[in-house]
Amino acid sequence: MVSFLLSHRAADDSVVARLLDDALTARFGSGSVVRDDPGAVISAAERRLRLSASAALIVVIEPRSPGESAVLPGISRRTIAAALTQQVPVIPVLVDNAELQRGTRLPEPLRPLGQQHYRRVHRTSAPADIGYLVDDLATSFAPETAPAGPAIPLILSAEPVRWFMPPPSHGPSAAIVYSTRQDGLEVADSGRLMAWWHPGFMARYATRYEVDISDHSVVVDLRLPTEGGAYHFEASIAVGFRVTDPARIVRRGVRDAAVLVREFLLGTCRPITSRYAIDEVIRAEAAIRRRLGQDTSVPDGITLRLKSVRLSLDERVGRYVREREWKRAQDDRRERAEQRPERARRADAGEETSGIRIWPAGHDLGELARGNHAMALGRDVYASEDRAIPTFTGPPTSSLPDVTRAPERLLVARAPTQVPAGRELSVEVRLVSEGRSVHPDAVTARIRSFLVADAGTPVTVTVHAPAGLHAEGPLQQTVLVLPDDDPDPIRFGFGARTPGLHRVDVTAWAGGTFLGEVSVEVSVADGGPFRDGQPKTAPMGAPQARPGEVTMEVRFDGSRYTFQLRSEAALFAPVVESVTNTPNAAVENAIRELQQLAGGGSRYSAPMAREVIRSAGIQLWSELVPADVRDQFWQVGADMSAFTIATDHDVVPWELLYPLSAQRDAGFLVEQIPVVRRTYGQRRNATIGLRDPRFVVPTRAPTGAREEIATIRAILGADDSESITRADELLALINSGALGATHFACHNTFSADGSFIDMDGGRFKPTLLAEASIRKLLAETGPLVFINACRSAGVAPTYTKMLGWAQQFMSSGAGAFVGTLWAVRSDSSARFATAFYRSLADGATLGAAALAARVEQQDDPLDPTWLAYTVYGDPFATAAV
Question: Residue 457 pairs with which residues in a beta bridge?
Fold first, then answer.
């Protein structure tokens, strides 16, 4: 049974300590908690005995009262010192704003306590905070059980020796082992035929075994202890192995190699990682790599060869240490500020002529990048044995920190253009200040109003690559951007697996706020050359997370969805969900039913119609959003100010999501907060152009189209210029780069072959925007494009991507796009557009304007038009009029 020694100030009857005591007892059983009374007098021997029987010492530290000691208020220092001496894990639990002193402020025996990773519990959320703590203790100290997985049999057959034995059935991939009747074992010589028909053969041998000696690979996931044992590393170790002593395999009766490999790796790696603290994950990983770097013989008869090893920390541990790292980053920032005068003197003396840090030749950028990735989990890592990389995960509150005007910056990515199949390659990513060294072939763009928090702003860089490029490391890394310095380069490693042209998308984020995006292409060919490529650059917006902004990234590769929820409050790992069938059919059925409601063709009563719509949203939420992502949503939902869906696969009507749990029901997501979308390749626009509005009204326009246009003209103060009716006139205006805000009142025809708007002179199709998309012809004006038509946001598959009106207009540089997901009522669509334009023109943000328009449309329960609209752009963007 796991037991813990709990120490707290008993005189205060701590509510947190009592709740923690109850939670530990409930999880680990009666008698699992031993209470350490600081006022009691016990012998040193008794104290040692209590500690030896405990998995960890949990120290609850309350906020300091006036006049109380500033070191450890009311806590038994002797118990803590003894635990540190006996190497019993010490877990400080800080209540509310209590602080843990560091360094020389503590007495010598207690100084290691200042380096412990504490947990914080707030009285206002104590049950939840304690629940997370107890869950982590259970993970760290409960015995590990091997997860179920496919067995790898080594003894393929065993049959008694007899007359007329059939030949072995597994061919050269198996070794033949005979057991003798004197309990010996003999491996048959593969080059010499055994004379089983000889009269003495049966007298000598009893059993024939076939042992698998072919090559195998396995990935083993382990939980390995850190120094002190209070935390653990999550390890993923890939090894190749084969049997090198078939007789030993038979003697030991090894049938499942997976179990054998796992037990060997556990026994080998646990003593290694237990020498490293939680913030030394890279050093621990390097130590495992050194130990397993050569072919390793396992006592049971196999030989291992290490392929890869990856150590990390789970998200929960990162959340616990986030506050400490934030404070450490502030301390580092102050120290750098104090050193600035000396740096200025050195620069004047010619000792330092630029702000670029030059790394020594042969420096392992991959290891450095791993260190940056570790920052996202709230820990320090080391790129070498003697050089620490400072870490950062974000402030403990959502308020905006002090900011400083910093140089304009670029997101720069570089990768080889050609790689032979089977080779490894790197994608190098940099965040570069204006005026600093960039490859001469790079195309640069200014980034205005680049604000960086005085203590630094964390920027998370994520890469997405197709299956043909196998990731050899993390696909997401976080760096700290300082006002007066650029972060070190980030390296993402891949293995070129499949010939073809592969695109790698690189995106930068501050919490849930999108900053910039750039793509590089890699051509993989059998026996082809290796050619380096020029950098690709993109401007970055202000690297500062907007409080409460959450983004859900959704990617689909044809067989798997990858979801990732991004927010300032927490950094969640991607969630991969395999699908046996694409959601197209289910989506079409849902839209068909909603379209019938919108068209008045339903026999449902008003209450029943609302339930039909609500059920469709709940079904999407429960079936299309993985359970892990739903749980993450509830974690960050309370403080959410805007929700963005970033996706390049637009079949799913995400606007219909109806988040529901046993405890929470706040309605459709679009009823609660501003909800918008963004496409990959979309610029980050802080403003939306409403200037020089134009109106597209084909000859065969819907009923009421001209009244709708007249109302919007009045809201925008537009003149009475002729509406656009011809396709060639509209295309010429777009390709001129002078397109202002554009409102379509029209019919949009959608089929499996794509969308088009029937105009005078021909059909206007999304593909006609190809030139504008490549040349970004709308970037200067950044106009609003509103297609108020039937299913104008629908998409059709093309050769390489999902292509629709929203994708084409946004990639061309539009500031925002509004369209419909299904056919809508003419009167309802006009009312939605009117409410949307009025709010946006009055100064509302894009997300708020969309929310206001939806709310205004909910008076008719039989009409789901308010759910039909999808909005693309920055939820906090405002109109430029």
Answer: 481
